[in-house]
């Protein structure tokens, strides 16, 4: 293990993305990366099972996607940068994703943000 990562496993809310995780999650990260392509996005919306099959996703990966388990996806090893593409396709804001990861509603999450009052 990388000595720079020593102790991070004990830090709550920290999910290490290293070569091991990258290799494990390669197919699902590539799957989400394809969200850049309009034809792929439409195919996913029309027939998600076909896109899962074409990508060779495991049952676990499919369930994480179907359930929109944002935190589970990150813990599995999905890069947030490609996860944003999926959220965008579903018309889910980053703030809603963050709220879900914290186990909160969007309204409850927004109450924790310091937003200046509008003039």
What features would you describe in this structure?
The chain has 119 residues and is mainly α. It has one domain: Dioxygenase LigAB, LigA subunit (Protocatechuate 4,5-dioxygenase, Chain A), CATH 1.10.700. Helix content is 58%, strand content 0%. The longest helix has 10 residues. It is flat. The relative contact order is 0.12. The model has no long low-confidence stretch (mean pLDDT 89).
Q: Quick recap of the structure?
A:
With 119 residues, the protein is mainly alpha-helical. It contains nine helices and no strands. The protein has one domain (16-110): Dioxygenase LigAB, LigA subunit (Protocatechuate 4,5-dioxygenase, Chain A, Orthogonal Bundle), CATH 1.10.700.10.
Instruction: Count up the helices.
Output: 9
CATH fold-level label: Protocatechuate 4,5-dioxygenase, Chain A
Low-confidence stretches: none
End-to-end Cα distance, whole Å, is 52 Å
Supply the number of structural domains: 1
Which structural class is indicated by helix and strand composition? mainly alpha
Envelope shape: flat
- What is the CATH class? Mainly Alpha
Please compute the radius of gyration using only Cα atoms. 16 Å
What's the SSE pattern?
HHHHHHHHH
Any idea what the CATH architecture is? Orthogonal Bundle
User: Portion of residues in helices?
Assistant: 55-70%
CATH superfamily: Dioxygenase LigAB, LigA subunit
Characterize the largest beta sheet: strand count, sense, and whether it forms a barrel.
Answer: none
On the 0-100 scale, what is the average pLDDT?
89
Count of beta strands: 0
Query: What is the percentage of strand-forming residues?
Result: under 5%
């Amino acid at each position: 293990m990388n000595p720079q990562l020593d102790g991070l496993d004990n830090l709550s809310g920290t999910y290490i993305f290293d070569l091991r995780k990258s290799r494990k999650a390669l197919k699902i990260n590539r799957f989400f990366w394809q969200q850049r392509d309009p034809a792929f996005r439409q195919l996913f919306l029309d027939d998600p099972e076909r896109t899962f099959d074409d990508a060779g996703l495991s049952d676990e990966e499919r369930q994480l996607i179907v359930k929109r388990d944002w935190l589970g996806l990150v813990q599995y090893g999905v890069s947030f940068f490609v996860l944003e593409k999926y959220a965008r396709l579903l018309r889910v804001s980053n703030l809603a994703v963050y709220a879900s990861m914290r186990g909160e509603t969007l309204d409850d999450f927004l109450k924790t943000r310091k937003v200046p009052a509008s003039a």
